[in-house]
What does this fold into?
Amino acid sequence: MVWFNAVKGFGFIRTEEDERLYVHTSGFAPGQIPVGRCADKQVSFEREIADVEGGYQAVGVSMIDDDRTSGGRARLRRQR
It folds into this structure.
C-alpha cells in the first residue's frame, strides 16, 4: 500500500513492477479494508481495466499477514 484514506474511500498501491494502481473501498475483499496507517503494508490483488488514472485499478485487494515482510510491493494474483 502507498496509502488509503477510509474517509475519502480510496487510495493507491504500488506493484512489484512499480506501477501505481488506484483502489476504491469497494476494491477490497470482505473484511480487508485497512484501518489506520497502512503505508508499506503488503497486499495481494487482481488488476482490472477502469476509467481512472493509468487505466487500471486494483480489485480483490487483501492484506498479506506475514511478520517477515515489511515494506515491499503489492503482489498481483495471476489469473490461471
Observations:
- The chain has a mean pLDDT of 86.
- The chain has one domain: 3-76.
